[in-house]
Design a protein that fits this description.
Distance between the termini: 63 Å
Structural class: mainly alpha
Low-confidence stretches: none
Largest sheet: none
Shape: flat
Helix content: over 70%
Number of helices: 2
Strand content: under 5%
Number of strands: 0
Order of helices and strands: HH
Mean pLDDT: 80
């Protein structure tokens, strides 16, 4: 099987699984509870991402700058 064929097959399987999950969620009696859980999970993921981004920015911007060495030119020989 070619790599392109296996990627297409994998994509189709993932699409079918997602479609099945959406259909189950739409027809389920517990969809309000599931949606609340998913909303809470998305909120926690967003908070975690924002914290990691703020930490990365603080480390990036608070790092001391390296002093540049003396510049030399080709005529300094």
């Amino acid at each position: 099987m070619k790599p392109v064929d296996s990627k297409l097959l994998l994509g189709l399987l993932i699409g079918a699984a997602v479609g099945g999950a959406i259909t189950y969620l739409a027809t389920s009696d517990k969809k309000e509870e599931w949606l609340k859980d998913l909303t809470d999970l998305a909120g926690k993921a967003k908070e975690g991402f924002n914290e990691a981004l703020a930490l990365a920015k603080s480390k990036c911007c608070s790092a001391p700058e390296v002093a540049a060495g003396p510049e030399t030119s080709s005529t300094d020989v």
